[in-house]
Amino acid sequence: MTGDHSFRGVLVDDLRVQFGTVEAVAGVDLRVDQGQAMALLGRNGAGKSTTMRVLAGVVPPSGGYAVVGGHDVREESLDAKRVVGYCPDVGGLVPRATPWEHLQLNARLRGLVDWEARGRALLERFDLGDVAHRVTAGFSHGMSRRLSVVLAALHEPAVLLLDEPFDGVDPVGVEATFEVIQDARAGGAAVIVSTHLRDLAVEVCSEVAVLRGGTRMATISSGFMAGDEGARAYRALLAG
Amino acid sequence: MAALTVLAALAPAWIHLDRDLAPLLPAGLAALVVVGVGGAVAGAGGRELLARDPASIHPISPMTDHLGALLLAPLNTGWLIQTWALLGLSASIAGPGRLLAAQAVTLAWILAATTLGQAVAWAVECVRRGPRGLAIVRGVVGGLVALLALAGALPEGRRLLVGGPAGAVADVVASPRGLPVALALVLLVGAAVGWTVIGGRFAQLASRRMPRDEGRLETRTHEARPDPRSDLAVLRRIDRASVWRSVPLRRGTWLLAIAPGAVALAGGLDWSGLVLLPGLVASGCVLLFGVNLWCLDGRGMLWRETLPVAPRTVLLARACVLGEVLLGAGLVTVVLGAVRAGVPSFAELAGVVLALLVVVGQAVSAGLRWSAARPHAVDLRSARATPAPPLVMVGYSLRLAMATTFTSLLLGALAAGGRTDLLLAATAAFLLVSGLRVARAVRRWEDPVRRAVVVAVVAA
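^ inputs. structure came back:
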């Protein structure tokens, strides 16, 4: 498949990632249009985080094709990184830098101007305003998760990738993350949320893709994955 | 290492030297105590068997931690080199006939000095973690360093430093006879047992107190500064913060900047000796974080790798920060050492300055290579943390020490011979090699697969 560079969402075709003899991603296909949000669900080791890392430009694909915001992640790596906002699944923060310094680094490297007001507003929304100038090494897990979402959202990216954004986060943080996702969709961004929390995923996303063993098992409308019926359907997909 | 230790302890006994080395022995014995105490105090209780966070879920008692630190104490180049030199000196002085007795006493001294260092380190850590502990420790350590420098500068002070227990043990090693040897062994081994028990007690006390220095840095507020003017500047700023806000890195850098300079000041080292110090400082400082440069980002490396910036800019920023730390520490050492070194000739001054530049280049290029080739997931929050496992650190430090010492000796010899032309040529050659190695490291860092491996390890 050749890339459709006019497409500004996320397009993944037969994506493969090999770590030594282990194939972490074995032919994933995804399509997320602008203004849409897709949840990635699946068991541990299903390939969700690896897929997200490929889209974020951290892990080069071993095969297949991935386009974000009209840029091939392999061929136009820097351009792809410019249009992506990524919240990693673990950590994601420089331990001895402050949140404000993270924002400064992000803003400078992305060429943002007059970003300070939005930065402050995001920190306040995620209840991090009081610790904006404290080093992140002393942050709790939930605080780190919230700040990672702030960093992913600062530049209003065309593609927002949130990997486990709700993990260990309090209700205020979950609500703020919902708002960020809704704002991004309203602004025309393509959003992918990888999580184990199905209830939250179906609440904020329009579609759900279930991965198993490094491949996509199904893509289903969120409505079908909600409630007890959805839970049964999800378990059936995981069991194969 | 075991083979080298045996070699150092035996071979010199059969080498005949015209020079009488016995007068050097008391200073060698005293120096081992200084190295043992200084290293353990700077390391906030010595090396960890397990890193702090992974260890916290295991039932490891403070006494086990203390004994583990004692066990790992030899995995330190400063300690190793000092010990090898001391064993070699003892063997040379004692000769083949009395080698066994002499080396038994020397080994007992090494044991006692190491356990003393560990006990003092835990005692200092207890105070440091107490009320106003930081200020007290800084005041006392600063005062002691000044006192040592002063004592070393005066003949009476020098006699005092190398007299006492070091002098008495040196006498026994120089002429080991039955009763004095037995007495020395009983006293030194007894002292080692005593220091071990006392150290364990202090370790228990320290474990009940919060590490204030680390807590202070982690809760400190840093006011926002204006936006940097370039990508390189913003990267350098955040990398600098990662170094100077880390307790082990800050403490280690200051120790390595000041301690060799203070020793040079005390010993009245001349310019031909000063030329060796930048290599010592650079190879020590690069071991603080330079051999695993990417660990400064910790798990944040995963996010940093998604930022739209050329990989070479990221690498150059890191190299600049490493270079400035090494240069700064080396300069402090040289300035301290220069106070009593007299007025240098142009060649001597050039020798020291160029040696500093060359060894910094060597250390930076080695750090860049090793950081990409063998990354480790390390959290540099604990004052006892090191950027790589202890055995790996020994390998790195020996390789660096050999390279920088050889380079410094060569440049020093050219400077002493007044051959400024050859000095400049050798400097240019060394810098060219380092430059080529840095360029190769930059090219390798531009490979996304290689970077992904480093990110996966460091952010694990």
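Chain B has 21 helices and no strands. Residues 19-218 of chain B form one domain.
thumbs up if we can close this ticket
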